[in-house]
Amino acid sequence: MTPYPRFDVPGQVALVTGAARGLGRAVALTLANAGADVAIGLRDATQDAGLAGEIEALGRRALPLQMDMTSPAQIAGAVATAAEHFGRIDILVNNAGIAPGHNAEDVPESDFDRTLAINLKGTFFASQAVGRLMIAQGYGRIINMGSQAGEVALPGESVYCMTKAAIAHLTRCLAVEWGSHGITVNNVAPTFIRTPGTEEHLSDPAREADVIERIAALHRIGDPMDVAGAVLYLASPAASLVTGHTLLVDGGWTAR
Predict the structure, then answer these.
(1) Known catalytic membership, residue 160
(2) Which residues of the chain register pLDDT less than 70?
């Protein structure tokens, strides 16, 4: 009989980028709770806000890493350090991203360049560095953090939307290239989630009410653990035949 699906990752090693807060923090803790040791990618490795201790309290190993996602050199160095420390990397979660808001006619070049550098360039070069390790070991799970903004237009977020649409297609490209090496590549696309990054937007009662109304099916704003559960599924053996896929965690926003 075929074994029942498993939704845990015991003994595996995960690298989560942008893990200091919000979605990244929730994902790191969820993977640790499911049995993984976790390398924590941070823009400032001295500021992990206690995350390493929380992971260790779950009985897993943690390694904070200096990993500025605008620097391919730092990305490569962090991946090499994690691989040397743990001996392998089984799961990569490309969570780091930014979303400076401007109407399209007002986007400054500096914000355009930084958004692409972190959201796209950082995601690609982290995938490349970890992908080389996964090809050598014949196994891997890469989960990109997209957004419903890759599927629908959000006013004032043209550059962010563009990067998240590109990540969805990059996911398909890498899935096709690396599938023969036992690597799956998928994309999680959340709606508005209550995190430090959305706090300012959702602090306006009118905007919060508009977001809740647009989340058509469930009419509630998500929690980071709603997204972390989707990441864990895609990292787990239960999703072994799922690749090149974008999993919307949007409460029905895009179904409308």
Answers:
(1) yes
(2) 199, 201, 214, 216-217
- Is residue 89 a contact partner of residue 9, using CB atoms and an 8 Å limit? no
How many Å apart are CA 55 and CA 40, to the nearest integer?
10
pLDDT (0 to 100) of residue 216: 67
Q: Which CATH superfamily is domain 13-248 in?
A: NAD(P)-binding Rossmann-like Domain (3.40.50.720)
User: What does the angle CA 250 – CA 188 – CA 120 come to, to the nearest 5 degrees?
Assistant: 120
Residue with token string 């970890």: 130
Radius of gyration of the chain (CA): 17
Task: Please say whether the beta carbons of 19 and 27 come within 8 A.
Answer: yes
Q: In b/e form, how buried is each residue of 224-251, taking b as 16+ CB within 10 angstroms?
A: bebbbbbbbbbbbeebeeebbbbbbbbb
Task: Check if the beta carbon of residue 186 is closer than 8 Å to that of residue 247.
Answer: yes
Instruction: List all residues 6 or more positions away from 248 whose beta carbon is below 8 Å from its beta carbon.
Output: 148, 151, 189, 191, 254
- Domain regions of the chain by residue span: 13-248
Structure tokens at 211: 């977001």
Q: How far is CA 75 from CA 89, 136, 163, 223, 248, in A?
A: 14, 19, 19, 28, 27
Give the model's pLDDT for residue 25: 96
Distances (CA, A) of 26 to 33, 63, 140, 212, 217: 10, 16, 21, 22, 24
CB of 3 closer than 8 Å to CB of 75: no
Q: Report whether 187 contacts 168 (CB < 8 A).
A: yes
Looking at 4, 139, 160, 233, which residue is catalytic?
A: 160
